[in-house]
Amino acid sequence: MPIIEVRNLSKTYAGGTTALSDVSLDIHESEILALLGPNGAGKTTFISIVCGLVTPSGGEVRVGGHDIVRDYRAARSLIGLVPQEISIEMFETVMNTVRFSRGLYGRKPDDAYLEKLLRDLSLYDKRDARLMELSGGMKRRVLIAKALSHQPRVLFLDEPTAGVDVNLRRDTWAVVRRLRDQGVTVILTTHYLEEAEEMADRIGIIDKGRLMLVRDKRDLMHEFGRKRLVVELVEPLITLPADLRELGLVLSEDGQHLSYEYDTRADRSGIARLFATLARHGIAVRDLETRESSLEDVFLRLLGEAA
Ligand SMILES: Nc1ncnc2c1ncn2[C@@H]1O[C@H](COP(=O)(O)OP(=O)(O)OP(=O)(O)O)[C@@H](O)[C@H]1O
C-alpha cells in the first residue's frame, strides 16, 4: 500500500485562485519525491493540504490509510513538516524546542532519541544555545529536527535549502538520504534542480495547479535527456562538407570542433554514420567529449513543450 494516496485533489482559495486541479498520485514508502514547478504552481498548497493546514475543495488524501480530514490526528501524527518560512521561538534553546515539538504530538519524552537526532543534524554542540544565537542554516536544521521529533514516517521539506550554503546543502542532502534509508518517505519542493537531480528517486512536475508528470528520475532523464558529442579535430576545417551538415553536425567558429546533439533514446546508428563520413573525408579526430543534459535542461524543455 502506498504511504500517501492522493485522489482527484483540488483547491480553490476563497479569493477564487485555483491552486490545484484534479491531482492524483501515490507516494511510496521510503522514496524521495521531488516536486518541481514554477512559483505559484501549487506545490506549497499540495503540502499544506496533506499536512492538514489547508482544507481541500475536492478529492481525498490518505496517509498511512488515514483520511486527512476524517481521521486528521492519526494522519498528522505520521507526518513531519519543515515549512518554507522560519518561525521559531528565538529565546528557547535548541533541545527544549525539539522536546516541546515532540510533546505536541503526545509522544513520551525520549531525550536519547532527540540527542541522536541533533547529532545527525550536526546540532548537538548547539543543544543548549538559544535559537537567536544560531546561523540561518542552523535554524533551518532546527526546523528539520522539530519536524522529526515525533518520529514521523513521512517528512515534507518545503524548499529545505533555500539560502543555505553549498556545504550545508550537501549535509542536508546526506541527512535526507539517511532518513530515506531508515524507511522515512520524503517529499520535497525545490527550485534547485541540481538538488532534485542529486537526491530524488522520483520527480513530479506541477504547473498551474496540474500534476503534469510523475516519473522515476532515471527514466525521465533518459527519455527527455539529450546528449551532445563534441569532436575535436586535428586540423581545423574551413567549411563543413554538405553531407556532414546534413547529419546535423555544427562547426565551431574556430573550425576546430564539431558538435552533434542527439536523443539519449535514439539508436546509436547516427554516431556510427557520422564517424564513417568523417573518415571518408579524411578528417582526423584528436579527442571526443560527451555531455548529458541535466535535469534543468529536461525541466525547461518539458515546461517549454507544455507552454
Ligand atoms: N492562502 C491563500 N489564499 C489565496 N491564494 C493563495 C493562498 N496561498 C496560495 N495562494 C495562491 O495559490 C497559488 C499556488 O500557490 P502555492 O504557494 O501553492 O505555489 P508554490 O508552487 O508553492 O509556489 P512557490 O514556488 O513560489 O513557493 C498561487 O497563485 C498563490 O497566489
UniProtKB/TrEMBL annotation:
Domain ABC transporter: 4-233
Molecular function via GO: ATP binding; ATP hydrolysis activity
UniProt cross-references to SUPFAM superfamilies, sorted A to Z: P-loop containing nucleoside triphosphate hydrolases (SSF52540)
Keyword list, A-Z: ATP-binding, Nucleotide-binding, Transport
UniProt cross-references to PROSITE patterns, sorted A to Z: ABC_TRANSPORTER_1, ABC_TRANSPORTER_2
Keyword Transport: yes
InterPro entries referenced in this protein's UniProt entry, alphabetically: AAA+_ATPase, ABC_transporter-like_ATP-bd, ABC_transporter-like_CS, ABC_transporter_ATP-binding, P-loop_NTPase
Domain of life: Bacteria
Pfam families linked: ABC_tran
The keyword Ubl conjugation is assigned to this record: no
Annotated PANTHER family: ABC TRANSPORTER ATP-BINDING PROTEIN
Entry protein name: ABC-2 type transport system ATP-binding protein
Biological source species: Albidovulum inexpectatum
